[in-house]
Amino acid sequence: MDGKVLIFSAPSGSGKSTVVSHLLRLHPELEFSVSATSRKPRGEEKNGVEYWFLTEEKFRSLIDADKFVEYEEVYPGRFYGTLKSEVERIWSKGNVIIFDVDVKGGVNLKKYFGDKALSVFIQAPSVEVLRERLISRGTDSMEDIEKRVAKASEELTYAPLFDRVLVNDDLSTALAEAEEMVSGFLK
Ligand code: ADP
Ligand code: 5GP
Question: Any idea which ligand is nearest the CA of 177?
């Protein structure tokens, strides 16, 4: 049974996790898609929660069998992707899938799902504000922050490929706009 799909993408630090967690709290019918990966679990990560953990050999055999909606070799030998079975698992419960993915993944998912999907690009008001938010989040080194900011400039060129662009300036305004976009699409 086919259902609906929400795709949220953004350069790191633009507010994707903040917006997506807000929507998940508001809409019990939304279910997060669990990606598959060939990397090993880190720390307390559990199979089926953070990721479906597969061996590289198993991952490659599933690629050959066309079992993925999309996948990428993010680092050499480290594959990440969405299994068609994950999509069916969520739709079979009557739930709506929500993806929180990088911008290239977002564009690929929209191509695959077409009109079943609403794709939203979240954008900070400027690159300078993005840098400040990454600094105040306090989770990354200055070196990593500069890498993320440099990558953001390239990622911004993908914005026109999304159905909607959400500028995350004032947070409560942005959350209300996200809610409006989602409610309109799910109606
Ligand atoms: P992403 O998931 O896109 O990397 P986050 O949701 O983690 O981004 O947001 C990055 C940081 O910016 C977090 O510390 C978050 O609390 C903060 N933030 C998000 N939106 C806003 C906003 N509109 N105004 C100020 N700070 C924000
Ligand atoms: P990590 O190993 O830190 O959990 O994730 C590494 C990278 O893999 C992140 O940039 C993340 O966006 C990407 N990633 C996670 N899941 C998927 C997926 O299903 N498809 C694609 N294309 N990338 C993913």
Answer: 1
> What's the 54 CA to ligand 2 centre distance in angstroms?
14
Which of 8, 18, 123, 139 is the pocket-test mutation for ligand 1 (most atoms within 8 Å of CB)?
Answer: 18
The CATH homologous superfamily to which domain 5-186 belongs is P-loop containing nucleotide triphosphate hydrolases (3.40.50.300)
Sequence spans of domains, the chain: 5-186
| DSSP conformation class of 140 | S
In order along its 187 residues, the chain shows pLDDT tens digits of 689 999 999 998 999 999 999 999 999 999 999 999 999 999 999 999 999 999 999 999 999 999 999 999 988 889 999 999 999 999 999 999 999 998 999 999 999 999 999 999 999 999 999 999 999 999 999 999 999 999 999 999 999 999 999 999 999 999 999 999 999 999 9
Q: Contact 96/27 with Cβ under 8 angstroms? A: yes
CB of 111 shorter than 6 A to ligand 1: no
State in Å: Cα 148 to ligand 1 middle. 14
The region, left, alpha or beta by phi > 0 then psi within -120 to 50, assigned to residue 114 is: left
DSSP letter for each residue of 18-37: HHHHHHHHH-TTEEEPPPEE
